[in-house]
Amino acid sequence: MPMATDIEDGQRFDEVVDPDRLKQDLHAIAAQHGGNSQEARRAVLALVKQTDTEGRARARAMLDEDGSGRLCAMRISHLEDVVITALFDFATTHVYRVENPSTSERMVIAAVGGYGRGTLAPGSDIDLLFVLPYRKTPWTEQVVEWMLYMLWDMGQKVGHATRNIDECLRLSRTDMTIRTAILELRFICGELTLFDELAKRFRNEVVEDTGPEFIAAKLAERDERHKKIGDTRYLVEPNVKEGKGGLRDLNTLFWIARYYYRIGATADLVDIGVLSRREYNLFAKAEDFLWAVRCHMHFLVGKAEERLSFDIQRDIANALGYQAHPGLSAVERFMKHYFLVAKDVGDLTRILCAGLEDQQAKLAPGLINGVIGRFAGKPRRIPGTLDFLDDRGRITLADKAVFRNDPVNLIRLFHLADLRALDIHPDTLRQVTRSLKLINPALREDEEANRLFMSILTSPREPADTLRRMNEAGVLGRFIPEFGKIVAMMQFNMYHHFTVDEHLLRAVGALSAIDKGKQSDEIPLATKLMPGIAQREVLYVAVLIHDIAKGRPEDHSIAGAKVARKLCPRFGMSPMETELVAWLVQEHLTMSMVAQTRDLNDRKTIVDFADRVQTLDRLKLLLILTVCDIRAVGPGVWNGWKGQLLRTLYYETELVISGGFSEASRKERVRQSRLLLLEALSKAGWSERECKSYIRLPYDNYLLSVSHDDQVRHAEFIRAADRAGRRLDSMVRTHAFHAITEITLLAPDHPRLLSIIAGACAAAGANIADAQIYTTRDGRALDTVLINRAFSRDEDELRRAGAIRRTIEETLIGTASLPDEIERKRTARRKSKAFRVKPRVTISNTLSNKLTVIEVECLDRPGLLSDITSVLSDLSLDILSAHITTFGEKVVDSFYVRDLVGMKITNETRQANIMARVAAVLADKQDEARDRMPSGVIAPTAEIRRPRRPRRLRQA
Is 365 contained in some domain? Predict the structure, then answer.
């Protein structure tokens, strides 16, 4: 076990703290004030606190100078060693001095945990074990108590335990955490013979013959930790300490190696042949990088922050010296490096496990959870190949020259693993990693290699899992160099939860699930269409490469289409299939954007989209690709409402492409809708007079866009409100399938109703998914607001919706004020401050035949929709439809408007005025809006009333 004095040359620990100087200053305090006086204690505390603060400041400066994270952690650890040793010396020499100590009046202070490894992050706990020879004595209790209170008064977080040697051994046999702590035990100060006795007995009485048990427990512990944190190393806000590919995984490797091989340092694994020199260097570089990130995080935040969140990623990237490159910002380059290091940690885990299996093959019958074992029996041949063997459910090589003799075997290996449902032996993966240079242009153009790859990609089993294995081994990025460029690439936004390569593999997994019919409840249309897709290979290739050109200066959709035209012939695809893949990649965002940001009741929206798609085959392929893309973004991004929007767009476009959409049919559908509603109301017991009176209220747009069941429900709702004399009324219901809750409001119409509803939802913390807002011919608004579901239980969701409904009602009758609540929500939201979205406002008269479309893009914030609709009301614009789409921290809002006389906004001066006012809102500088207006423009006032028309608000 290493001792505190085992310091390598050239690491400049003396620059952090001078042990001799500290010891001399403490003795001077004792000489001046005595040892056991309050004056002495205050002076000692002030001195050690100042020493610690200055030492940490020097450690931070040296981190900025040499960039070594591991050295920084070692320097801080050394600093605490010196402080603790000096305090112990002062306590035993001046405070509780014993002239002739008994055998019981001895102790050793040892470091455990990360501190035991001689590394300590700036904000980490100091974990100490006070080891006694026998039982506690008054002297040992006094010294321990004095030490702990001094450290606590310094502001240190101290984890501690006081045990004798027998207790340490007994507890370590039954508690794996304590066993690991003693495994890392490191001498700081005290009775060295006592430390050596514990170390010797621990090796002989606990470690001996328990290697397999310890390894299985630590790997099972690691798997459980990954499951809890997130079982992927490609989360865009990773946990540097506990996450997959983080420091704790490296610690686990060290624990296993030290326990099993009895080594003192990781470098010893090279001497015993478990790691190559290159692999050890990889370990050292990974550890140093992760320590640098962690130390910078702690220094920046001022506490033990382990999650590399968005709001500090940019600062850490700057601290580490990353620079922006074309297509990638500095923070994105930093995070790509981080994920590549996390991947290296995974490679090292496989390599070490392979070495352990080789060592254990003849010594152990097996390990818990199958981590090490399956040693009974000999490997057997796999039918159809002489190069690979089945070693108890895992593929292994017939000889080490398999890849060198035929490089196609680097692809065939994964094809056989998929075909035979076999795992791949860690040692085989190690050989793959060492053979990556064999993947050259000749192999990439090899017909058999590409045939095998396409078979993997379109496998009816689990293609995403096999592709992920290929990616982890480095094969996928070498075989498809364009894919290699986006491996470990993150996008600095709150929308995407995973790196680009992980997103693409998850998209393939989503397509495979649709292909197998597993998602029929959540995505019925895509599941229904999939069996009829003739171009199955086209779809799989498009899904795999749709984001392959991310990180380039050129738009990734356009650049991706160029990549598709290069790759598809390699994969054996015809020119027609190649062009179809290229079209899908180029248009892969189109259907999602149209569905979420355009008015699907506007005929031109559907016609323009149909002109872009042109054929039903393309429409089907694009729908499925869009579904896979959204579902692979991250948890919670896909919901039933987005599915409903896509289905609506699909069915409306299908009518246009097949020739079934016309103005004549629209009029006929309105007539039929009125007749059906009259018939339903009559059957429900309405009188003829009531039916005729009500059927005149709704506009045509309402009858076309609202389902028949909802029309009947609304009619009953309005009649009940009228009979009760309620001018303002509301009702609530939940939609589990769509993951939304519906609040329907009946109120007198007025110009700012839309803004008030949006503001009330923002004040209540509700995220609007959509709203259907219609006006009746008698001057009332019938508004249905759809908010994203927050609770799984209907009763909880109904209570929440009721509170939101009351907020809306109280605001409308004037008993509640929105600005304060919205500002409180806005102040509480801090995460988006890490992002920068340049505000953008555009006005278009070509997206609709009858309306002007105002499109805005900006950073999201609470109350944004309320602010925008309020200023549009100020500008005397009639909002017929608004679509608010959120992509993480960014919103893309589209408002379909016209002026008060029902015309488009064509005057350039007025357009400039609108853009200036809206831009001020997006920049959150509404007070400056009037100053930014063009000269000669008179600002409209809120008193101008406008006629109400049917309009639709949608937010997804």
Answer: no
The overall average pLDDT reported for the chain is 84
Check pLDDT > 80 for residue 812: no
Note whether 383 and 353 are same-domain residues.
no
Structural domain boundaries enclosing 448: 377-479
CA nearest neighbour of 818 among 755, 750, 882, 883: 755
Quickly list DSSP for 621-632: HHHHHHHHHHHT
Cα–Cα distance for residue pair 392/365, rounded to 1 Å: 14
> What does the DSSP assignment read for 205-235?
IIITT-HHHHHHHHHHHHHHHHHHH-S-TTB
Contacts with 854 (C-beta within 8 Å, 6 or more apart), sequence order:
841, 842, 843, 872, 894, 895, 897, 914, 918
Give CA 779 to chain center in angstroms. 47
Residues 355 and 397 in one domain: no
Q: Are residues 36 and 102 in the same domain?
A: yes
Looking at the whole model, is its pTM more than 0.85? no
Residues 384 and 352 in one domain: no
Please check whether residues 170 and 46 belong to one and the same domain.
yes
| pLDDT given at position 615 | 94
Residues 561/590, Cβ–Cβ less than 8 Å: no
Residue 500 pLDDT > 80, yes or no?
Answer: yes
| Domain identity same for 270 and 389 | no
Tell me which amino acid residue 786 is.
Answer: L
pLDDT tens for 899-930 read 888 899 999 999 999 999 999 988 865 444 43
55 inside domain: yes
422 with 347, same domain?
no
Q: Which of 155, 74, 170, 167 is nearest to 129 (CA)?
A: 167
Q: Are 532 and 620 in contact (CB under 8 A)?
A: yes
What are the φ and ψ backbone dihedral angles of 44, each rounded to 5 degrees? Answer: -65, -45
| 479, 513, 547 - which closes a domain | 479
What is the rounded distance in angstroms from the CA atom of residue 350 to the CA atom of residue 55? 39
- Helices (H), strands (E): how many in the chain? 40, 17
Q: What share of the chain is helix, strand, coil (3-state, %, to 5)?
A: 55, 10, 30
Cα→Cα distances 16→120, 254, 301, 736, Å: 14, 27, 21, 60
In a domain, 667, yes or no: no
591 touches 598 (CB < 8 A): no
What span, in angstroms and rounded, lies between the C-alpha atoms of 547 and 556? 7
Q: How many CA atoms lie within 13 A of 725 on its CB side?
A: 0
Backbone angles phi, psi at 241, to 5 degrees: -90, -50
Distance of CA 338 to CAs 51, 309, 551, Å? Answer: 34, 13, 16
Q: What is the CATH number of the domain that holds 466?
A: 1.10.110.30
Instruction: For residue 126, give every residue at least 6 positions away whose Cβ sits within 8 Å of its Cβ, in sequence order, or none.
Output: 80, 84, 111, 115, 120, 151, 156, 157, 158, 159
Mark out the alpha helices in 588-734 (DSSP H runs). Answer: 590-597, 603-613, 616-631, 640-657, 663-683, 688-695, 700-705, 708-724
**Domain count of the fold of the chain:** 5
CA geometry: angle at 764 spanning 761 and 768, to 5°?
35
CA 222 → CA 353, 574, 900, 929, distances in Å?
13, 47, 65, 56
Q: Cα angle at 474 between 237 and 421, to 5 degrees?
A: 95
Instruction: Report the distance separating Cα 347 and Cα 543, nearest Å.
Output: 27
243 pLDDT above the threshold of 50: yes
Digit-coded pLDDT (tens) for 47-102: 999 999 999 999 999 999 999 999 999 999 999 999 999 999 999 999 998 877 78
User: Residue 400: which of 389, 412, 411 has the closest Cα?
Assistant: 389
Query: What does the angle CA 621 – CA 623 – CA 627 come to, to the nearest 5 degrees?
Result: 120
Under the banding of pLDDT at 50, 70 and 90, the label for residue 566 is very high
159 bridge partner residues: 127
Residues 157, 74 share a domain? yes
Instruction: Say what percent of the chain tops pLDDT 90.
Output: 48
Distance CA 927, CA 929 (A): 6
